[in-house]
Structure of Molybdopterin molybdenumtransferase:
Amino acid sequence: MLEYKTALERILSTAKEMPAEKVDLQHALKRVLAEDVFHDMDMPPFNKSAMDGFACRRADLSNELEVVETLFAGKLPEKALLKNQCYKIMTGAVVPESADCVFKKEDAAWVAPGKVICKNQSTGNNICYQGEDIKKGEKVLAKSTLISARHLPVLAGAGVARPLVFGRPDVAVFATGTELVEPDAKPRSFQIRNSNSSQLLAQLAEMKIQAGYGGIIQDDEPVLLEKISEALNNSRVVILTGGVSVGDFDLIPDVLTKQGFDILVTTTAIKPGKPMIFARKGGNYCFGLSGNPVSSFVQFELYVKPFLFALMGHRFQTEILTLPLGKEMNRKKSDRMDFVPVNIGAEMEIIPVEFHGSAHINALSGATHLLEVPKGVNAIKKGERVNVRSI
Ligand SMILES: Nc1nc2c(c(=O)[nH]1)N[C@H]1C(S)=C(S)[C@@H](COP(=O)(O)OP(=O)(O)OC[C@H]3O[C@@H](n4cnc5c(N)ncnc54)[C@H](O)[C@@H]3O)O[C@H]1N2
Ligand code: MOO
């Protein structure tokens, strides 16, 4: 049984980055940059007025000023200022070289038609200076950045209308198990609804990966062989659930070996989700996740997500919060790292939800975070600080 971190590193070490492609800006969200981005101009590109008001020479600020031109955003100034002259200026307009100070409209008083004075002698300059935010040639985004909404204006501002991003892998999802029926069917007394597939497709969709869904496969070796081999024709990654433990009908390891896969992981020291197959055949990869719904959810978050991000050129790091535990926790066995569904209370304390184990999907839907209980820890006292990740 591999430790969590060992298994993760083993899985990540096999990931080869997908070839890069250019996409339109509106399709760049949640893609991963395949090159550094450098800015092609200063920002602001010119000395820019930060206020609606009047631009003048500071040396003339205490004098009556004659308004010689109105400057607005998008207009090139025509006149240079002479002594005791000023521009009427709008926010975003170019501040010409002959002016070094803008005072805002609220600080101005008209003393005669076309003549103003400044009522606030200690006014700031109210100028955003050329290049103060970004210098031409400066690196503004690094390769491997996972593009979020806050990165898009930077790309747009740098004129990168078609960023180069890593490709996304084609992924196929299957559920295996003779007992399974799809959610629209009424299960008979010995059957169970397939909940894993919708969960996994949604976890993939959250990563902007539109996977192909191959349906339910019976626990039947020839059928499994045929379906998996078909899926490999157009999918780099196949994700299966069920049939990965040691029962007579847990056929996935054998089927993958017969397909020529190298099985690199079979069990890892996490709970829930101990049995999990990770296998590789050249540029194809297969995850055989546990059939139990909470286990497959946790395995996806811990292993599949970072792996798919690695294929897309991004080193995924989950945000971990460290907060005090709201009530004491005990467990009998501590040979695995536990992931327990929890919520965060009003006092920012961690509150475990009632959790019966790896089939208890309701516990997961009523929780916002997973609490990590390290291997070897049998009890955690109220108030002790613990690590949680959001789900
Ligand atoms: N002798 C041993 N038995 C088991 C071990 C072990 O170490 N030795 N490990 C247990 C653990 S832990 C887990 S987890 C399960 C994993 O089993 P499988 O991944 O082979 O999954 P199945 O047996 O096919 O199914 C388990 C459970 O989940 C239900 N299931 C399956 N697929 C779905 C689905 N798509 N949607 C909803 N529910 C699903 C299935 O009906 C079973 O109830 O093995 C233990 N056994
Ligand atoms: O590892 Mo299994 O998912 O505990 O039930």
Notes: The CA atoms of residues 157 and 207 lie 25 Å apart. The mean pLDDT is 96.
